[in-house]
Every structure is written in C-alpha cells, then in structure tokens.
Amino acid sequence: MIDDDLRKAIEKLREQKAKAVLGGGKSEVERQHAKGKLTARERINRLLDPGSFVELGMLGALEKDAVKEVYGDGIVTGFGTVDGRMVGIFSQDYTVWRGSFGEVHRLKMNNVMDKARELGIPMICLWDGSGGRLELNTYTNPAHYSTFKRFAKNSGLIPQISAMLGPSPGNGAYGPAMTDFIFLVDGLSYVFATGPKGTKQEVGEEISMEDLGGARVHCQKSGLGDARFKTEEACFQAIRKLLSFLPSNHEEFPPDTHPSKAPPLTNKKLNDLVPSDSRKPYDMLKVVEQIVDRSDFFEIKPEFARNIITGFGRLNGHVVGILANQPLVMAGSLTIDASVKAARFVRFADCFNIPLIMLVDTTGYLPGSQQEHNGLLRHGAKLPFAIAESTVPKIALLIRKAYGGAKPAMGIDKDLGVHVVYAWPIAESGVMGARATVKVLFKNEIKSAPDPEAFFRDKVEEFRESTSPYVMAHSTFIDDVIEPAETRRRLIATLEVLLAKRKIPSDKTPHGNIPL
Question: How many domains does the chain have?
Fold first, then answer.
C-alpha cells in the first residue's frame, strides 16, 4: 500500500501538472479559442501522432510565476512522432505572457533545439507570441541570448519547419526567418520586424497588421512564406506531408516509397501539353504533374516568383526536388526573386541529399533597368552558384528553349556538375533566340531586302538549325534527344542509375541553408 507522504506528493504533482496544462488559466484558454486559435498543447496534439508527445520543462517558470502556480513561461517543448518518425517540437503558448520571450522560455526553446540536433531529428516550430518580453530588463542566465545561434547551428544539419499561428513580431520574426520552411494561416499569421504601432511612430505610416505582415503579404510579396492555408488543421497536414519528403538529418537520404502498383513509365499526354512555337505559353505545372508519381507534387512558394516552380515529388518512389521554369508567367524568365527562390531551394536539396530534376523553358534573365539596378547580376548569380556547389544527383531536361546565362543557371551545362542533360526534339538553345539573333545581326539587311518578311523568315530558320537539340547532341553538349512521352521513363531510369551506389561523399562538407 502506498504511504501517505508519497500519496500526498503524487497528488501535489498532479495538481501542479493540471495547472500547467491550463497555461494561463481557463479564462486565457477561452480567450484563445474566441480568437479562433488552438492552444499550444492542442496544436501539438493535432500535429503529432496520437499519444506520442513527451513534454520537457512542463513546470519551468519564473520565480514570481511559480508562486502563482503559472507554469511553462509561454512555451511548450518536447518530442513526438509524425507518421512514426521522431521530431523535436516547440509551441509558443499565448495564454502565458502572450507567448513572449522570457528567460525560461528561451532556455526551454534552446534545450529542445539542442537535443533535436544531437538526435538528428527534424525541428518543428509553432509560433504564436508577442516577441521580446518588455517586462524583463535583466536575465540571470546568458544562454537566453543564443536562440538565433541555435537556428544557425542547426541549419543544414536537420530540417527546421516553422508554422506561424498568431502574431510574431521582432525576435519572433527573425527566428522563423532562419528556418527552412515557413507556413502561414490566413487571418491568424502576422509576422513583422516592427508592428503597425511602431511603424506609425517611427516613420508615420499607417497600416493594418494584415497589410503589413499577413499571410498573403508574405506568400505573395515578401517571399518569406512558403505556403498559406485557411485553417490550422490544413497547415498541420501540410507539415506532415512535407516531412514525408525529407530525411531526418543531413546524414540520411530522403525516405523512398515502394509503389504497390508500378506507375506507368510512358505518358503520351506529354505530347500534347507543350506548343512547339516557343512564343506560346503553357502551364509547366501540368508537365510536372504528368512526370511525378500519381501527379503528387508538393509546391514550395507557389505564390511568390511564379515564373519559377520549386517543390518535391517522387519518381518511381524516389524523392526528388523539382526546379522548373513557368512559361505562363513572364515567359519563364529568371528575375531577382526567381533566382533567390530557386537558389535557396537548390541549397536545401543539397543539404539533405535530395536529387534535383530541372525542367527548362526560359527566355533568359529578364532585361530592364529595374532588374539591373536592383541587383540582377548579384542575385542572379546565386542560382548557378548553388547548382555548381551542390553534390546531389542532377538531371536537366531542356523542354523548349534556354538562352544566354539562363542555360547554366538552369542546369543546361554539364561542366557545372549536372550529371545528365536531355532535350525534347522541339528544344533550342543559344546566346539568344533565333528571332532575336536575326534582328540584331541583320537589322540593316532586313530593311534593305526586297522582301523583308521572307528574308527574316529564312534567316530565322537558318539560325534555328544551328540551335537545334541535334547540334547539341552531336557535340555531346547534351546526352540525348528524347520524345516527350518517354520523359518519365528516361528520368526514372537515369535517376536510378545515379542512385545505384548512393552514398554521401566522404569529403562533403555540410553547409547551412542561409536565408538568401
């Protein structure tokens, strides 16, 4: 029989933990629900596998809070599983100190991030707080300063995923900006360096929270967000799906699946999706969906820099990163935003041993003073640099066109480290397109020709012959010209050759995924 002292100790423990579970208390929980928001623990329980959460630091509290039996210091931390795979997680608790950064708060956050790195497991960060805690002017432990250091130290070693589920200003904005992926929820997510009140006070600009740092702004304009969702539940489902494409750390390969039924290798639909006239637009997403298994493609930053597509899919069960130009937007040209978006995606894939498939159809880097003056060369160089630096298997497919510096930037350059390059029979490549080249080289001749239109047409055909995929194949600049319907089969076969003796190079130096 249990003795009285132990029974009383257990009762006291249960009482304290019951109060800790309530965070700031029933009234604060009700206020959170009234805003249409889940509590910190509810979010963890919705995201993780049922019953898998192991909490750390439940009773952590500042001395003055412990006296009041208010625990947690505004954050819930611990470990659990997603589809059976272990992850580290923290969830800011807005019911305690509005989820702000206090000393114990930071120590708990740092502790779980350190352990995630040591264990080699992904880190999931659920943000809902008011930034730095103004009420605290001194800290007894210098470790509270090093939260940013943890994000930087973990970068490239373990995947770091953020979900913005409430306000997140100041320190609470820079932290998630250092993680690999950021998901937001419409009507809940507000992320900014300085909020509307500070903005008005400092620069005199009046602006709402939504227009300053809402989900739409960060997914369409700033590029901070990787995707936005209508509900928290949809956001959690997306995190689970994203994790299904990622390894747990930089020393592992992404999780392959084995399709119960072998997907078809030949796809005749690809013969009908792309117009042979390089001036006509089409939706590259439809091409991607016909290439990946079960048309299952997880797009990253679908609303930002839409002239380029980035995301994850599978080829015969093998995880791949897809990088593709989008001819529907700016003719698939490379801009500053597109270059930065693509370069960071390439770097992430290289960090975590994810092979890259590049689908190429671009007019080149977008010309114009606005792009040039804003740093097109400085930012545009990030993409070919990232490709050249990467060591993962890389396959490029020239679908229709690639001109100028966009050729190496999109991987149509084996000397840049791209392992295999294919082209469709309608493809062309050169310094410029045939039409533009003729206009530059034969400007005067066109004007003086008896039949300018006929002269121009003949010259264009002549130059098209010199930029055809067969010329590139003859010189082994590309490895083969393939039929559109055979694309999936060739990509799978080539990928499996490159993966046949897959191992992480012994001389590969881990690198971080710096926010470009």
Answer: 2
CATH number at residue 195: 3.90.226.10
Cα 120 to its chain centre, rounded Å, is 20
* Residue 177 main-chain phi, psi, to 5 deg: -65, -15
CA torsion 372→378→381→386, rounded to 10°? -140
* CA–CA dist 350, 157 (Å, integer): 11
Q: How far apart are CA 407 and CA 391, in angstroms?
A: 19
Residue 91 confidence (pLDDT): 98
Instruction: Locate 480 and state its tokens.
Output: 């083969």
CB 123 within 8 A of CB 160: yes
Residues 334 and 226 reside in one and the same domain: no
Domain extent for 379: 270-427+468-498
Q: Do 280 and 210 reside in the same domain of the chain? A: no
Residues recorded for the chain:
516
Query: Quick one: average pLDDT of 171-178?
Result: 93
Name the strand (E) or helix (H) holding 85: strand 85-92
Q: Count other Cβ atoms within 10 Å, centred on residue 81.
A: 16
Task: Tell me the whole-structure pTM to 2 decimals.
Answer: 0.94
Residues 283 and 240 in one domain: no
Question: Do the Cβ atoms of 58 and 71 come closer than 8 Å?
Answer: yes
- Asked if the model's pLDDT at residue 215 lies above 70, the reply is yes
- Least Cα distance to 293 among 330, 243, 247, 256 occurs for 256
67 has a pLDDT exceeding 70: yes
Same domain for 186 and 38: yes
